[in-house]
Amino acid sequence: MEWTLGVKLLLPLLWAACGRPAGADGANGYTSIIEVTNGGPWGEWAWPEMCPDGFFASGFSLKVEPSQGIPGDDTALNGIRLHCARGNAERNTHVVESQSGRWGAWSEPLWCPGGRFLVAFSLRVEEPKTPGDNTAANNLRFRCSDSTELEGPGLNWGDFGDWSKLCPKGVCGLQTKVEPPRGLRDDTALNDVRFFCCAS
Predict the structure, then answer these.
(1) How much is the pTM?
(2) In b/e form, how buried is each residue of 106-144, taking b as 16+ CB within 10 angstroms?
(3) Which domain holds residue 185?
(4) Domain assignment of residue 59, yes or no
(5) What phi and psi, each to the nearest 5 degrees, are found at residue 13?
């Protein structure tokens, strides 16, 4: 029990120290990583979460805190879940989630049509402002393998950046960068995300 707990506590630190995974690790290994350049500056990279072997992400849902008004502290996008599928997209699924912030509620999933897979993404991020209420990442949109675009129900602060590169077949995992709660100071929660691509 103590050894297992130690490993769970140590893994996020190792991933953060390395900055990114080293490469494919066999049957459940990824072939590449897709990222964007406009992620927020706060927080640390958490642990990765991967779809089961043979599954790819066909849908996603977001954890979003609505606007808190004045003088509330806004955090906007707090979490991302991938809905991994094999076969019928909405029946044979497995949900994966890296670290998420504590605020907000989960949306209903958005699905690529016809069992297609998520292959690229763009992140909506509010630029840092001093002084001010920083929110970092606010929304996320994906491109499916049939070129359909799905935009999440996040908030409208900031701008969408450039699209990531394409996964050759589909997204099969994720890793989030989240700022932990700061007490009475300005919270931003989710700042950035990267996705893993698999070939089979």
Answers:
(1) 0.84
(2) beebbbbeebbbbbbbbbbbbeeeeeebbbbbbbbbbbb
(3) 27-198
(4) yes
(5) -70, -40
Q: How far is CA 156 from CA 1, 107, 136, in A?
A: 44, 16, 12
What digits encode the pLDDT tens for the residues 121-153? 999 999 998 888 999 999 999 999 999 999 999
Is 111 within 8 Å of 89 (Cβ atoms)? yes
Structure tokens of 177? 């960068």
Q: Does residue 89 lie in a domain region?
A: yes
SS3 22: coil
Domain assignment present for residue 4? The answer is no
Spell 37-76 as b/e; 16+ CB within 10 A means b.
Answer: ebbbebbbbbebbbbeeebbbbbbbbbbbeeeeeeebbbb
CB 6, CB 12: distance < 8 Å: no
Note if the bond before 71 is cis, omega within 30 degrees.
yes
Which CATH number is 130's domain given?
Answer: 2.100.10.20
The total number of structural domains in the chain stands at 1
Question: Which pair of tokens denotes residue 159?
Answer: 């701008």
Give the chain's residues under pLDDT 70.
1-28, 87-92, 184
Q: How far apart are CA 175 and CA 106, in angstroms?
A: 18
Q: Assess contact for 64 and 153: CB atoms under 8 A.
A: yes
